[in-house]
Amino acid sequence: MAQQDCSRMEAQGNFDAYLENPQDWAYQKLQEENGAPVKDYANANMSTKQVFLSSIWACVVLCFAYDLITGVGDGRYGRSTGDLFHGNLWSLPF
User: Fold this and answer.
1) Which residue of 13, 23, 69, 83 has the fewest CB atoms within a 10 Å radius of its CB?
2) Phi, psi angle pair for 9, to nearest 5°
3) Nearest CA-CA partner of 69 in 82, 85, 57
4) Residues 92, 72: contact at Cβ < 8 Å?
5) Which residues in the chain land under pLDDT 50?
6) What is the pLDDT of residue 81?
7) Which of 54, 88, 57 has its CA nearest to residue 73?
């Protein structure tokens, strides 16, 4: 932070982008040094519409995952001969 003269939020956004994809982050920084516009990683995807849509999507995925896990455990998906958690996982026909 002190060497780059940036705020904590900007430094955290840069580091998160680096951890997500180091090659693209390094390419973006090289392009910025050559005159390309600086990408604002600290405020990326922070519009209220995007946050709301991502939250709705996460809720839908969690509902399906919950239904799948409980359905496999109850025997709704596949013919289970007993409970799933005591060695019958590999006997399901899928």
Assistant:
1) 23
2) -65, -40
3) 85
4) yes
5) none
6) 56
7) 88
What was the pLDDT predicted at 27?
A: 94
d(CA 68, CA 60) in angstroms, rounded, equals 12
DSSP string, 61-80: HHHHHHHHHHHHHHTSSS--
Rounded alpha-carbon distances, angstroms, from residue 20 to 25, 81, 85: 9, 43, 35
- Let me know: does 24 contact 14? Beta carbons within 8 Å: no
Cβ atoms within 10 A of the Cβ of 16, count? 13
Quickly count: other Cβ atoms within 10 Å of residue 41's Cβ: 20
From CA 66, how far away is CA 77, in angstroms rounded? 13
Burial category of 21 from C-beta neighbours within 10 Å (exposed 0-12, middle 13-18, buried 19 and up): exposed
Q: How far apart are CA 43 and CA 50, in angstroms?
A: 12
